[in-house]
Structures are given as C-alpha cells and as structure tokens.
Design a protein that fits this description.
The complex is a heterodimer. Chain A is about 40% helix and about 10% strand. Chain A is an alpha+beta fold. Chain A is globular and about 60 Å long. Chain B is an alpha/beta fold. Chain B has 18 helices and nine strands. Chain B is globular and about 70 Å long. The chains are: A alpha+beta, B alpha/beta. Bound molecules: flavin mononucleotide (FMN), iron/sulfur cluster and FE2/S2 (inorganic) cluster (FES). The site of FE2/S2 (inorganic) cluster has 10 residues of chain A, from helix 5.
C-alpha cells in the first residue's frame, strides 16, 4: 500500500469547493470527511488535520464528529466494502445466514478487512430496501433479494476481477473511494445507468395497471390555461 | 382501489429524467404555483389536509404557516427548507424507491415549498448508504437547474454518514450544521430557530413530493381520497413473508387485509403472525388487526401508530423474541447517548432479551424488561427512546407465552430460524 493517498493540494481545492456550497462553512464537515475517505479509504489523521485547518476547528472537534457516524472508518476499508443487512426483517428472511456464509468465504468478520485490502465486511442496520430482503450492499450499491449462494457469488466475482452489476445501480460496481467521492458531492456521471426501479418498487404500479385502477383525474382547471394534455397510461 | 399518483410514471425506463417526468405533467404544478401568492399556496396545502408522511402526521400546511414572515426579528433571517431523506426507521422503504424512480417530483415539490415559505436555500439531507439514490438526486437537481426551473433557489443535496438519530429533525439540523447528530431541546422549535438558528421547515420526502399533485388537483381532489382526518393517497410498503413485497400507493384508510388480498397475500403456507403498521417504533399488531383502517386515527385506535406505513409482515415461523431482540439491538446501537434512560435502558434490555432468546431468562426478566420500558417511555429526551419500548411492550402484550418459553427453551428450538428464511424449510418448496 502507498504511504498515503492524500494529494494535499487537490484535496484542499476540493474541500474549498464543498465549503462554497453552504451558507456556513462548518456544514461542509460531513461531506469533507467523505472526501477524505475518497482519497485515503478511511478518515486519516492527515485528513482530519486538513478538515480542521480549512474550517478553523481543532483536530479534536473534527475527530469527535467523525467518530459519531458509522460511515467514517478509522482503518482503511476494503476496495469493496460489503455490508449485509441484519436488521430484523432481513435477518429473519435469511440475512443472518448470508452474513455467516460471506464471512466464512472472506475469512473476516464484522469490522475487519482482508489482508490484501480487497474486502471489508460489516453487518448493517435497515438499508431502506426491506421490500427486497435480504439485502446486501457493496460500497452502498444495492444487491437485492440475495441468497447465501448469490452473495458469495458476488464476492467471488469481485475477487476475480470480473464485472459485477448491482441490481439497482450502475452497470458496474464502483470502488469504496469512488463511492466516497459521490458522497462528498462530486457526481460520477452514472446516475442514468441502471434500472429506474426494481420489481418490488413497481409491484403496486403494475397491479394498478392490470386492475385498471387509477387515482381520480385532476379536475380541468377553471383558469382557462388551455386544454390539459392527457395523462398517458 | 389503488391510486398511483407518485408512482404513476415509474413504469417508464427514463422515469427519473426531466424528460420522463415531463411526460407525466412534471413541473406543470410549479408554473401554476409560481403564479400564486405564497400565502394562498400555504392555505391550499392546509386546506388539502396533507399530513406529514415522516411518521408523526403533523399537518404540513400548518407547519409552513408557523414560519414567521415579514421584515422584523426572526422573520428577517433567511428561511430554509430541509427535506428529511434520512429514511432509516427499520422497515421503512418508501422514500428511497421514490427518489430513485422519480427524484424530480421531489425537486418540484421543493421549489414550490420554498416559494410558499419564502426560502431561498433548500437542503435535501439523504442518508449516505444509498449511493444510486444520491446520484439520481444530484442528477435531477442539475437537470432542473440547467432547465432554469429553480430560479434563484439554491438546492444542496447533502449525504449523511450513518446515524438513525439524524432522522430526528433537530438532530438532523445539528448534523447539517456539521456537528454530532444529537437532538436539541425544544422550544425553540425549528419553525423559528432551525438551521443556523433561522426559520426552518423540515419535511419528509413523501410530504414534499405530494405537493405538486395538490397544486395540480386542488384540495378537493386530494381529499376525495382517504378518510375524514387522514386525507389523500400514500405509499404503503409491504415486506416480509408476503408473496409480492413492494410499494403500493392507495388512499389512506385501506386495510392490511385489502392490501394482502390485492397483492396475493402471504407466501404459500404462511399465516400472518405479527406485523408493524409503520416501522419498528410502532407497536406490533397481529392477525386480529387485519381490518384496522391504515390511517392516523385508525391505527392509533388499535393501540399503535401509522408511522411510516412500513408494513413488515411476519409469519408463524418467526420467533417474536428474536425479532424484538434484533430491533432492541438496533436502538441500543443508534441511541445517541445524550440521555440516561435511553442509553442505559436499551443496553440492559438487550442483555435481558439475549437471555430470553437463549432460553435462559427468568420470569423476573420479563418484569424487569417492562419496568425498564416504563422508565424510558416519556422520560427520554427524544422519541427514539419511546420508539425503543414499542416492540417490547406490544410483543409481551400479544405473545407473553413466547417470552415465558424463553425461561426454558431457546427461541431457535421453538422456531428453527431457517424456516423463516426465503429459502427456508417447508416453505421453500412452496415458494413460486
Ligand atoms: C429517531 C427518529 C428518527 C426519525 N427518522 C426520520 C426519517 O428518517 N425521515 C423522516 O422524514 N422523519 C423522521 N423522523 C421524524 C422527524 O423528526 C420529523 O417529524 C419529520 O421529518 C417531519 O416531516 P413531516 O412532517 O413531513 O412528516 C424521525 C424521528 C425520530 C424520533
Ligand atoms: S432518547 Fe436516546 S436518542 Fe434520544 S436523546 Fe436520549 S439518548 Fe439520544
Ligand atoms: S431490514 Fe434490511 S433493508 Fe430493511
């Protein structure tokens, strides 16, 4: 591993870009910590110092914020940070078993990183995808409706350097650092990739269509702003 | 029976783009709202009866009306709109698919709401753990800016960093100001002293996304759906041991029985055992409550809360002790530590529930569990503490025998866990 991934000059310029988005500079702190992770893979001492300097805070103040939030890592995350949801609904539907199997496969447990730095593993709280349970996340991309076999297959293919696509996400899996950059507010241009919605998202919509159910039509406006265009079915 | 409004355009593969949204009359409401006086807009939202979809059901128009207007004192400070897109309440999964499939309806709602409350700066605080939703939001805001739809308004999409408590509106504001996300003492309320101690409206994603339809349809149209005090349509999220989990948009007041009948019911071989009407912080209900109208009053009448309309359905294979332990571990993990009853109480409840799960509890443990809940409920600094007691108290009420069994038999022997999984035991073969 390189001694440090922090290109200070560049990071500082980006940090200032973030600060400029907010009415008050300190609001930039959380995205700046994501920015640090996009350079370092974790919240490094150097990164904390940079945030403190740019915002006129002490390193202790920055550290106190960083340790409060679970997405900030004190040690480097793997290139692929794997999270298995084990909140009640996913756990009951099989998330516990998935975590066990993935953990076995990678040889690491919750909070650990593989020696080669490829994977880190975590159990997650509810990731707002319960209608796709059990859910696995890799660098915060959705892998819906998983089984132990499908989840192991995902990590196997990532380990082999084969292309892997999240179920609701871009065409290929990004790295932890790339994901952190988007979190810092620097779009990666991949918003238009992938499906607009998964099958569970569309369950009610599709059912309404097949039943011929619809919300009442909007009343035609009295304001006389011309004929309203018809809603397409 | 189903009334897709927000989900209307989701079937189009480009539903998340400006072009896709425009196909379904996207941004027509904005043009109309811009021509309206801000106060008239607030009056319209009040009249519609729209209530907050983030859990508490507070009337949205009234909240907007609390923002001081004028040139004196607090009113003279900048006004802010903050959209709560933290969606972290266990079971809750409606804002996430909404923003992924159609972020523009939220952006349009934001611009309209800012016109009403006279805000020139809006923030969308989205939990960080859903990257593609964040991308879609960033993209939609950029598209709207490029198409000159947002005017002078500045919209910042702000990614959170993992903390359920940041969904609580005052903790969210602290977090957005760059601090640890811990709840603030109220009063003063955000309406006068919110973000940067300035007048601030905090609204849930679905609340704001409902506004364009109200502007286009009017209050009477909105009120033609729903019930007397719970007007309009809403997203119900069905999950668990059901045949077709997902998002179902229907008038407020529909029942779980109706939703299950419509959607194909429980998976084969399954019988409903218990369910949450609106996430893990709402007391669990049972098959006895299948006909409770899912509106604010109906669910309250059954001793629970409508919450986020996260209908997590568990069947007869599920150990209620296991389920409650896992939720309690969540609250213990997410307790921000600011007040003692919640911080200490949730820790001890986890210890007790672990014993009960392992079949090593005592009857006294059950009493202690309920006592601890008593000490947390109403004595905590914020609603997270109250929420932590909900699953426990309601589960003991409905399933005391299962907790008693926890004094001699492990939950995993009574309810082999594998049978609950999607691929589990008897049900696996039955599954389509
Ligand atoms: C612990 C806790 C977590 C919450 N999480 C959320 C959330 O993720 N999203 C949300 O909209 N409201 C959440 N709320 C409710 C908010 O405090 C607030 O009531 C809501 O955002 C107001 O919006 P509404 O009036 O449009 O519903 C939470 C409340 C508590 C106590
Ligand atoms: S109730 Fe819990 S989450 Fe809320 S302030 Fe107290 S410790 Fe923090
Ligand atoms: S419980 Fe796993 S996504 Fe909600």
């Amino acid at each position: 591993m390189a001694a440090s991934g922090l290109d200070l000059e560049r990071a500082r310029a980006e940090a200032r870009e973030i600060i400029a988005r907010y009415p008050q500079p300190r609001s930039a702190l959380l995205p700046m910590l994501h920015l640090v992770q996009s350079h370092e893979g974790y919240v490094s001492g150097e990164g904390i110092a940079l945030c403190a300097e740019e915002l006129g805070l002490t390193k202790a103040e920055v550290g106190a914020v960083a340790t409060f939030y679970t997405m900030y890592r004190r040690r480097p995350a793997g290139t692929y940070h794997v999270g298995v949801c084990t909140n009640t609904l996913c756990a009951v539907l099989g998330g516990d078993e998935i975590l066990e199997r993935v953990s076995e496969r990678l040889g690491i447990t919750h909070g650990e990183t593989t020696e080669d730095g490829t994977f880190s593993l975590e159990h997650l709280e509810c990731n707002a995808a319960c209608d796709y349970a059990p859910v696995v996340m890799v660098n915060w991309e959705f892998y819906d409706d998983q089984t132990p076999e499908s989840a192991v297959d995902v990590v196997d293919r990532l380990a082999a350097g084969q292309p892997v696509a999240p179920t609701r996400g871009p065409r290929t899996q990004c790295t932890f650092k790339e994901a952190s950059r988007v979190l810092a507010g620097f779009p990666d241009g991949r918003a238009v990739e992938g499906v607009q919605a998964g099958p569970a998202t569309l369950a009610g919509f599709a059912l309404a269509q097949s039943r011929g159910d619809a919300a009442p039509d909007y009343p035609v406006s009295e304001a006389g702003d011309g004929p309203q265009e018809q809603e397409q079915a | 029976m189903l009334t897709p409004v927000l989900s209307r355009g989701w079937g189009d593969t480009d539903s998340f783009t400006l072009e896709g949204y425009r196909r379904h009359r996207g941004y027509e409401a904005l043009a109309r709202a811009r021509a309206m006086d801000p106060d008239a807009l607030i009056a319209l939202v009040k009249e519609s009866g729209l209530r907050g979809r983030g859990g508490a059901g507070f009337p949205t128009g009234m909240k907007w009306g609390f923002i001081p207007q004028g040139t004196e004192g607090q009113a003279a400070k900048p006004h802010y709109l903050v959209v709560n897109a933290d969606e972290s309440e266990p079971g809750t999964c409606k804002d996430t698919p909404l923003m992924m499939a159609n972020p523009h309806v939220l952006v349009e709602g934001v611009v309209i709401a800012c016109h009403a409350i006279r805000a020139s700066h809006a923030f969308i605080y989205i939990r960080g753990e859903e990257l593609h939703v964040l991308r879609r939001l960033q993209h939609a805001v950029q598209e709207a800016v490029d198409a000159s739809l947002v005017g002078d308004l500045r919209i910042v999409v702000h990614a959170g960093s993992g903390a359920y408590i940041c969904g609580e509106e005052t903790a969210l504001l602290d977090s957005l100001e760059g601090y640890r996300g811990q709840p603030r003492l109220r009063p003063p309320f955000p309406a006068t002293h919110g973000l940067y101690a300035s007048p601030t409206v905090v609204n849930n994603v679905e609340s704001i996304a409902s506004v364009p339809s109200i502007v286009l349809g009017g209050a009477a149209w909105f009120g033609s759906m729903g019930t007397e005090k719970s007007k309009g349509y809403t997203l119900y999220s069905l999950s668990g041991h059901v045949k077709r989990p997902g998002q179902y948009e229907a008038p407020l007041g529909i029942t779980l029985r109706q939703l299950l009948d419509l959607s194909g019911g429980m998976r084969d071989g399954s019988e409903l055992k218990f369910w949450t009407p609106g996430g893990s912080s709402t007391p669990i209900l049972t098959a006895e409550h299948l006909d409770v109208p899912l509106d604010y009053e109906g669910v309250a009448g059954a001793g629970s809360m409508l919450g986020t309309k996260a209908l997590q359905c568990f069947d007869q294979t599920t150990s209620v002790v296991r389920a409650v332990l896992r939720w309690t571990e969540f609250y213990a993990h997410e307790s921000c530590g600011k007040c003692t009853p919640c911080r200490e109480g949730t820790y001890w409840m986890v210890q007790i529930l672990k014993r009960l799960e392992a079949g090593q509890g005592t009857e006294e443990d059950i009493a202690t569990l309920l006592d601890t809940c008593d000490n947390i409920f109403g004595r905590s600094f914020c609603a997270l503490g109250d929420g932590a007691t909900s699953p426990i108290v309601s589960a003991v009420q409905h399933f005391r025998d299962e907790f008693l069994a926890g004094t001699h038999t492990p939950a995993w022997e009574l309810f082999p866990y594998r049978a609950s999984a999607r691929w589990g035991g008897a049900l696996a073969g039955a599954q389509a």
